[in-house]
Queue: 2 jobs
Job 1
Amino acid sequence: MYTQALDALGSLPTSATDEQALVSRFEARVAAEQKIEPKDWMPARYRATLIRQISQHAHSEIVGMLPEGNWITRAPTLKRKCILIAKVQDEGGHGAYLYSAAETLGISREQLIEQLLCGKAKYSSIFNYPTPTWADVGAIGWLVDGAAIMNQIPLCRCSYGPYARAMVRICREESFHQRQGYEIMLTLARGTPEQRRMAQGALDRWWWPSLMMFGPPDAQSTHSGESQRWKIKRVSNDELRQRFVDFTVPQAEFLGLKVPDPALKWNAASGHYEFGAIDWQEFEQVLKGHGPLNAERIAARRAAHAEGAWVREAALAHAEKQRARAAGRAA
Ligand SMILES: [Fe+2]
Ligand SMILES: [Fe+2]
């Protein structure tokens, strides 16, 4: 486990005045766009917010490997299979960067993984939906990775250094993912009538869950205000959602597909698309664990963790052997 908590002891405030001075210094640094680094003093709530957000993000990357991983053995060509394997592997890498970023805040990877496996930790609601056709793989890349980029680009400027730096690399890879998804959709949309139907079906399934990925409306978002002040979250949920709709609707039109929203219309005066009401009850249900595949996703992660136990044990035994050898050489 990272030893940051011990390192920070020297700068613990000893009185309320000290604490106020530390808060003022911290807030001035954030306001001046300076990055906060792991050994810097930070308010307990800033640390807790980051642990919650970064770990939810890490879990989402890891659980997000499952809906597409489901299609690796059935990808239609060898080329598609290679691309999909690389994409799913990228998501595993994103999870690893993010768990490392969370560890710099004084929580161990074991604790983080335990929170996911026992069902305590949240992850993105979208990964609890099924992928019944190959077109769903295209729709995930286009819409889900597309929404992720929209959410994550502002995080590259997040005030916490390790998170911001992880996001720069992750965003570069997500943009490849988005393009590979769109290219699958384009191929299907230009294919046979059956392929076009498949593409439309996938858009119908993923459109609304993608809009939910930006989180509850600003008026109901419990964490947004403080996160914006501390420059963890720099753009509001509703603003990001609107950007996504404005960006994605013309792409659907180019594909010749219909966005499944009868209320969708262009508003020339505002320069934005207006869209219909989101079913927040469905979102709440999925978040509470009652989505189509919540139970299967956690069961799959638990099985993978149990099956990987021998790898973790072997790695620890190997590290122990190396340590003993080095100690023997030094003696
Ligand atoms: Fe990712
Ligand atoms: Fe991705």
Job 2
Amino acid sequence: MRSPLVELFLLLARRFPIPGAYSSNVGIWLKFEVVLLFRTITPNGVTVRSESMPGRRKQRAHIKFTLNGEQTEVAFAPHKTLLEVVREDLGLTGTKHGCELGECGVCTVLVDGQPVLSCLFLGLDAEGRDVTTIEGMAEGGQLHPLQETFADLGAAQCGYCTPAFLLVAKELLEKNVNASREEIKEALAGNLCRCTGYIKIYEAVEWAAARMRGEHTEPAHESIYGFDV
Ligand code: FES
Ligand code: FES
């Protein structure tokens, strides 16, 4: 039996959830503090258990969700972000760790098909959701057209930003395979690249879109070989 105060909190939390994506770190810490305070059930219904370890007690949250098309269960410290859960507890290191402030975009994954900054998304909030990371982009050993055009056009140099660009572009082209250069720029505006520059990336997205539309186009000669001097 929960106390009336806990019931009131759960009611308010369900009625006015703190958005997980693109929210501030304040929101994450607020939720974490609430988890610690009530210890048992978080607003989205995830159970957090205390586990006794030799000499200490440790809290673990257990969630079930779909990860890259597969039903997945994972236990982790309840304060962890989705970025940390995916990389540290599930071993999928394709999602990159950057600023942790919601500014660089390298940690982007898709949650229910929408781009989400996983450094600002509490792992607990993945309960019951459908999460796609870069490891889930190729299907049946076949690269996604975006992966092919990024590779063919040299739209990645160090590659650190690339998984996030690919996932954001995938969501864009699924929504609008005829996206204009301006729409591509707008969709990718939250992702930073320190080495390639953005033109190759935009061209790679346009080329992938053309392939997805069934058109057999090639990028301009200069895009691949540069200008003759
Ligand atoms: S690491 Fe998430 S936005 Fe930079
Ligand atoms: S390819 Fe190096 S940061 Fe984008």
